[in-house]
Amino acid sequence: xxxxxxxxxxxxxxxxxxxxxxxxxxxxxxxxxxxxxxxxxxxxxxxxxxxxxxxxxxxxxxxxxxxxxxxxxxxxxxxxxxxxxxxxxxxxxxxxxxxxxxxxxxxxxxxxxxxxxxxxxxxxxxxxxxxxxxxxxxxxxxxxxxxxxxxxxxxxxxxxxxxxxxxxxxxxxxxxxxxxxxxxxxxxxxxxxxxxxxxxxxxxxxxxxxxxxxxxxxxxxxxxxxxxxxxxxxxxxxxxxxxxxxxxxxxxxxxxxxxxxxxxxxxxxxxxxxxxxxxxxxxxxxxxxxxxxxxxxxxxxxxxxxxxxxxxxxxxxxxxxxxxxxxxxxxxxxxxxxxxxxxxxxxxxxxxxxxxxxxxxxxxxxxxxxxxxxxxxxxxxxxxxxxxxxxxxxxxxxxxxxxxxxxxxxxxxxxxxxxxxxxxxxxxxxxxxxxxxxxxxxxxxxxxxxxxxxxxxxxxxxxxxxxxxxxxxxxxxxxxxxxxxxxxxxxxxxxxxxxxxxxxxxxxxxxxxxxxxxxxxxxxxxxxxxxxxxxxxxxxxxxxxxxxxxxxxxxxxxxxxxxxxx
Amino acid sequence: xxxxxxxxxxxxxxxxxxxxxxxxxxxxxxxxxxxxxxxxxxxxxxxxxxxxxxxxxxxxxxxxxxxxxxxxxxxxxxxxxxxxxxxxxxxxxxxxxxxxxxxxxxxxxxxxxxxxxxxxxxxxxxxxxxxxxxxxxxxxxxxxxxxxxxxxxxxxxxxxxxxxxxxxxxxxxxxxxxxxxxxxxxxxxxxxxxxxxxxxxxxxxxxxxxxxxxxxxxxxxxxxxxxxxxxxxxxxxxxxxxxxxxxxxxxxxxxxxxxxxxxxxxxxxxxxxxxxxxxxxxxxxxxxxxxxxxxxxxxxxxxxxxxxxxxxxxxxxxxxxxxxxxxxxxxxxxxxxxxxxxxxxxxxxxxxxxxxxxxxxxxxxxxxxxxxxxxxxxxxxxxxxxxxxxxxxxxxxxxxxxxxxxxxxxxxxxxxxxxxxxxxxxxxxxxxxxxxxxxxxxxxxxxxxxxxxxxxxxxxxxxxxxxxxxxxxxxxxxxxxxxxxxxxxxxxxxxxxxxxxxxxxxxxxxxxx
Lengths: 566, 513
Known about the structure:
The complex is a heterodimer. Chain A is α+β, with helices and mostly antiparallel strands. Chain A has 16 helices and 30 strands. In chain A, strands 18, 19, 21, 22, 24, 27, 28 and 30 form an 8-stranded antiparallel beta sheet that branches. In chain A, strands 2-1-7-6-5-4-3 form a 7-stranded mixed beta sheet. A 5-stranded antiparallel beta sheet of chain A has the order 20-23-29-25-26, with no helix packed on it. In chain A, a hairpin with a 5-residue loop joins strand 13 and strand 14. Chain B has a two-stranded antiparallel sheet with strand order 1-5. Chain B has a two-stranded antiparallel ribbon with strand order 2-3. A two-stranded antiparallel sheet of chain B has the order 4-8.
């Protein structure tokens, strides 16, 4: 017996003794970073100081962590003129780390789709993935992916047991500061920031969010965004302006700086766009176009941004050397809590002689809608972004000031559909609606004679042809249902122009394809003249009785096009 | 690599018995070890396995040669779409080189052991043995050529893996060394004097096109030389084919009536080498182009919108005969959509004749053509253009021959006043249309882009931007700036098994598992 046992044990020596085994993906995020202490020791210190180290080791949660290298953290400290995270305090550190965490997995496949990540950070901010296509030597593709346009992603999609890590060559700047705070501290804009303070624009540029009360009494918190076209001290000085007084003098402003007619007030307002626009967003033009009109915070004053032949973006190119400006790329795309700051290379005074240009009026293109969708859009919906499925958010009853809608007296036959729907289309190039501009559509189910009033973007004075681009599918055909339909009659009225007859067009019984499946267009006005550069008030009324009798009746609008004539 | 080698040994050990026909030949139930090699039939069995594996590898050759070229795109299949969008990572099976090394191992086995069989089998004549060696050299060279065009640097393995005594860990060799090895193999094959002009096989009428002949060796050399920017050699070997007077030579078929014979019944006079399938008698249809390029609105492979436009343009061009070009509807493509949306599927592997849409192949067993005369002619035209203006007129003549055969008018163009870029684009376009869905497009574009120290890199990127309809344009522009990204990553499992392998630097930061 002993002999047998001896033989058994003696002969059963582990053949893999002395071998080492590699076990993958067993560490959670913090432990993984700890294992690469040589790369991430500084970021780990910040995580621990922020008391978020253990949070990222939870096995029951899934995260995506953006981990800056030690060199990135040192550079961040240098920029902040500090030596350690403690100098910024725990609150800042927590915001900083939370800004680097998405509480969900972001796979490599999702990541390299590019654009805004579909999942927000723990600070409730969106991150944007940008591909750089500049002429870096053997950069490009996986090697030229940047977070928010300027933070290089060094390693992609490291799998851990509780999520994914992306390694960064820089620290992403947490959106803790607002526009005013950031410009006050950036050592670039002392003249410009004094003007912001004197005119009272400071109060606007400090707003992060605002509250609205819904009909049911619920209070909703909405984010507010601006995009500022800053002018640096160096730019002012190059034009002979060395102080805010000299700027006031140049503009000919009186000393009632907070008055909306004051030239300094208007000048600063002219440098503020309502909304959250990176340079890449400002570079988006409609198919075949290379310029776009943008509304500014200055009443009835607009800027024109165009793409030049050399690939640069130009503001007010029509205005010649004095009026036009370009973006200073290295000092642009600075993300802050309530928007973006870009610096321009000229003083950019108001220019009011812009030539008429085409305006694509996306009926959902309002900063208010953007912030509402960002905060309260249905799960997974991203403003102006196609995601995995079609998504619709109801805007009726949300007190958005950009829309004034009235339900028709006989109501809508639809019980389930949104009355004013913000619809983003499915991210599938084979989807018939995929070509939609901005990947979004406005749906109206307001019943017969129901209507909505809204303002167009500023339109430069001149003559235009006006067309409606809309969506339709046979399943929505009101005629086939015998519901007393007149073929989808819809009335468009410029309410500030009583001398202009409303355009009463039929959308469904007569359709002209827009060159794209299920997308049609119809001319509202062959020629209409706007005598003054300004926004126009437009009323859209559902003028088909079927809007109240056919449960699927709806009007789906992609955009309204204003094309200059001559 | 180690995984691969273990796999090769295992597979080699497990090869099952089969019919002795060349279309279905496999070593019998024995290991391909030194003890296996006893007779001529054993050599033929292993050689036949090389061809069999080439047939099995056809799907990946389609993906490698077409999807990134953006004349054809994957309508469905997420992995293929990532591949065509240049978003592949080292964990994707599409960057596995194992299918090529399986063939290489078969070729290496023949090259190593066939000479010894002569001592054991008196009926195995030296001329037969040399002939087998030429085929093995061809298969090895062809596979390395696919590898070098897709991975650039790959392990150069010239000995068979039959047991653990072979080194598992082999480092990559440079593109230059691999290309030189391919050329050496072709020359070694030709120097035996045993490369055949034709094969006689009563049970397989396509043997002359389905096995490697002298003509296939010439074609491979012309192709390799062009890739290697050795234009004189490309022209020289093209001319061995084009100027041959042998009654057994492959011949460019000048009549547009014959164009569809290239695909049906296949193994045409124009063919030089094609991978054969035979449904009748052998039941071979799996992996045939007929089953890869299917016809439906949801077919995996379809022509891209840009290619559809080119095919539409081809339809509008004036023809010399008054009939439409054969490279149009019910020739090259079939339009799946009757509405205003264009959706073209690949037709050439489904039909039995131009505009004979009422009759389709009864058997889905179209061959995969590796080389045919129109291909070689256009390779020569490209080399002539690259060699300078003196060859421009001859290049235009070649392009015109291809156009006239398809039914089109000749180009209104002469060499004088033409420039290199214009003519190269004409060749590129002619190859695109003539060789559509024949696995050539991506390599044509790469040659165009990389030659002469990436002289036309920007033009290449613009072509890609104009043609690829599924990738984000900014991403595409960004990724294509990096010339390393034009080549595939080494499979992660290979890297983990073989410490001598070095990952393509472009994929260094992608650690997705």
